[in-house]
Amino acid sequence: MDARKLSxxxxxxxxxxxxxxxxxxxxxxxxxxxxxxxKAKAKAHGTACLSNLRxxxxxxxxxxMDNEERFMADNGPSIEGxxxxxxxxxxxxxxxxxxxxxxxxxxxxxxxxxTEFWGWREENKSEGYFRKxxxxxxxxxxxxxxxxxxxxxxxxGQPSWHWSKTSSVDQPVATPVFGDCAWYGGNPFDFESGQxxxxxxxxxxxxxxxxxxxxxxxxxxxxxxxxxxxxxxxxDGSAHAxxxxxxxxxxxxxxxxxxxxxxxGW
Length: 266
Description:
It is a single chain. Helix content is 27%, strand content 11%. 36% of the residues are buried. It is elongated. The chain is an alpha/beta fold.
């Protein structure tokens, strides 16, 4: 074989069929890897979210220890009524753990949803009676709050349902303090109340299509942010994911009638 033929055979390119086979193999490998990468990313987001909630739970415990076991007072529609205001002396750079990694987008309405946070991440803009720059993707279980004389009936006219003090909580492992939420807090009712405050939303992205639906307290927490689950921190300091269908098995307030699970319908 002469040198010219040897050179041609040595550097001959791929045929079209060979290229198509290689491309098909790459596509198959990508199809196998992408779901795994997506799951790994979601798991990392969930872990970071739980870490954030533990911080808020720890600060709430510190507040209660400094105030004769009483939880933060709910002062109603005022700057002093937000938990971020009440806990401000316990945190430094709150921006580090105010947002769930799965809900980092800004909302166009100031009301959050599955992937967007509530409030405004701008120094000179506020939502309603919030402080300027108040925002977040977590909400408080308002039933833990103590009630001052200026707001003695609370948001739902059931002051006797409030826990008010840590020593009053009879199921600390099942009583939420903070969790993934479309607003800065809510007062969920039980399912048997028959009221919308205790009903599940009718679809997955309900909070996005129905912003500021104030009569749907449980709906604010019932969001598919972590694989059909929401992350919560509890009075005992534990933090973990809770399946959305199991939110009605938590002890939200003193008279809450727990159910093992609820059919969501989506």
